[in-house]
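Posting for a labmate who doesn't have an account.
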Amino acid sequence: MLVPTTREDITPEWLTALLATRHPDVRIDDIEILGSTQGAATRLRVKPAYAPGHDAGLPPVLFVKTSLTRRMLVSDPHMYVTEVRFYEQLRDRLDCETPEVYAWALDEQTSRFAVVIEDLSQRNAIFPTALSGLTADDVAPLMTTLAHLHAPNWGSPDLEQQYEWLETASRGKTAVWWVGEATDMTRLELEVPYKREAFELGGQTTDRLFAALAALQEANDTEPRTVIHGDTHVGNCYLLPDGGAGVLDWQLMRIANWGNDVGYTIMTALDVEARRKGEQDLLRTYLDELRGLGFEPPAWNDAWDHYRRQMVWGIVALLVTPTSM
């Protein structure tokens, strides 16, 4: 079985078998686990000891993402299927910065999975947070990356036929969750003092917030649609020493309007003052990059209006995310 279920399954034999699905000459004699973290998935940095002459051109350190827990830690494990399908069907078609993938496996019955990808620390990637104090100049390369991500499927009329495994902004379990369980989770999370205080500063109500979210979801299901990352908060982004920037963690991909990715990136990467100062230039960077790739972007007024609507997404995403995370 190429999909592990326990830490004991992470053996040289297992990693050899998984990598051999794409690199048949590989052979691993030993594994050193350099570090691990546990969130919605298990993440391991591993250092394989390749047999002499059998590294198959693979790097000295690999990043393994899988689920080594007795029970799945998410309400809809289809998100793991989505990530595997990205590496299987989309990764090689994209000309944008995102980790290289070396192997993947999926158990269709349980949605348990494993992917082996590039360890970005080998390229000295920086992983910012909302507290990193980024500037608009720091975020600009991410606008270029998003344009390259969105371009291959920009405005395609048959996206739902091409990618039947992807949900849309208004169809699928996730869309249903946002108008159901998310409301209850928000009310629960508003019992946390810092969230309640932040929310009350705006003088809003949860009813108004979720009415706005419903309108946003409808707007995000309008053209031009494309395949979006779907979860581009700054914690899923990385910056490179050469000035490039990339995105990772592809579990929440969907078919939707471009604005959701662009807005969520900017609003989570920049504090209020920096965002207000730089957001129009960042949006223009995205639109100009699309134009340079041969696509006609939305007119400025339409793009600016749609970008502004996305602020609702950032508020709801903060509120529904469990404080423990």
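Reply:
Got it, the structure tokens are right above this. The mean pLDDT is 93.
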